[in-house]
Amino acid sequence: MSKKVKILTKGIIKENPVFFTLLGMCPTLALSSSAQNAVGLGIATLIVLICSNVIISLLKKLIPAQVRLPCYITIIAGFTTFITLLLKAFLPDLYNALGIFLSLIACNCIIFARVEVFASKNGVLDSALDGLGMGLGFTLALFIMGTIREILGAGTWFGLQLPQLTEPMTIFIMPAGGFFALGFVIAAVNKFMKKRPHNISCDNCPHKAMCRRGEDD
Amino acid sequence: MTMKSKEKLRISDFKPIAVLALITAVTTILLVVMERSIQADETELSGSLKEMCIEMMGEGEFIVITDWDMLSRVTPEIPREINRTIIHEESGTVAFQIIVNGYNRNGLNLLIVMNGDGSVKDLAVYINTETPSIGTKVNERSFLDNFIGRSEDVRVVRGTSRSENEIAAITGATVSSRAVADAVNIAVYAYDLIYPGGWHEQES
User: Fold this and answer.
1) Long-range contacts of range B85-91, CB-CB < 8 Å, 24 or more positions apart?
2) Would you say the ipTM is above 0.85?
């Protein structure tokens, strides 16, 4: 039981796809300019991720290794189109706000990574939990980014006007502010989690034999 | 006579191709079935567009024309940018939903309500996918109000307007401001095509 909980929770914080494995940077930076869009895209990705994980876990014996990537792409793109059709029919406003990034879920590297690393090697329930955890982690990361950028950059939160203390800093809405905010958020999360980068030294370097930088010292 | 021995193709060599073809076929069939069953009805106003129509034209039934081909048969020069023509059933007020290129392709989607004499009664931005907090400044009422009552060609200029049919662009958002003017000009032109000389004249 605790193993299942572990699979579910590892994606939310410990192996958060945005903050620790740095996957899915493109939608994170492009759509986190408002909290509403960020959460919308996060949930759409979550649904595609769970569905693809389950189906690919079911079909893992059937799919031959030579054509596994084309098969994964077909299945993921199928679910993405499904979500796109649903949003277009029932939530046209969100569909218009997400624009091209909705179709681009099909080539989101978080989904590819989870399918290739996890779902193609594990059982159906584990894969579904993994998809749920990773999807929630991605949604959480987008929500944090969207909140910071929208409050600082536009002075609103989920479209609600906040009391204005200063003039909104437009740069946080722009791409440059996205990188800026992402850097600070990752730094803060790493500090909070007491994670350190892998030891960077000549001893761990695969190019040690060729490189002579260390010898001068 | 010697023959080079060819390696025989076995059935199992075709398995990857067969599996891929099968998965693609199943996915495609499922998607086609799904699209047929949940296709959004374009002639049905939904969400914020309906709210905007009610706010600008009043409660009531709306007739929505989405078929560009049908309109172009009546008036061949009707501009392609017109996405929907919305007619308020009781008052006969006509509104155009127009998509124009701003800084982004198809960046501005506006709803423009016309008066019977062919001038602009009211306008609002339905979807704006321009640069946030720069191009989206054209949503502001103070800018859009400049276009109300126009029936001649309007131009957006940088700085201050010098003549009657010039409108000052929003600083930093000249391209988006021009796109709004484009849409207004298209609406005025299209209304004149559909009801030459105004709607009231047509009636009498």
Assistant:
1) B86/B45, B86/B53, B86/B57, B86/B62, B86/B111, B87/B62, B87/B63, B88/B53, B88/B57, B88/B58, B88/B60, B88/B61, B88/B62, B89/B60, B89/B61, B89/B62, B89/B63, B90/B58, B90/B60, B90/B61, B91/B57, B91/B58, B91/B60
2) no
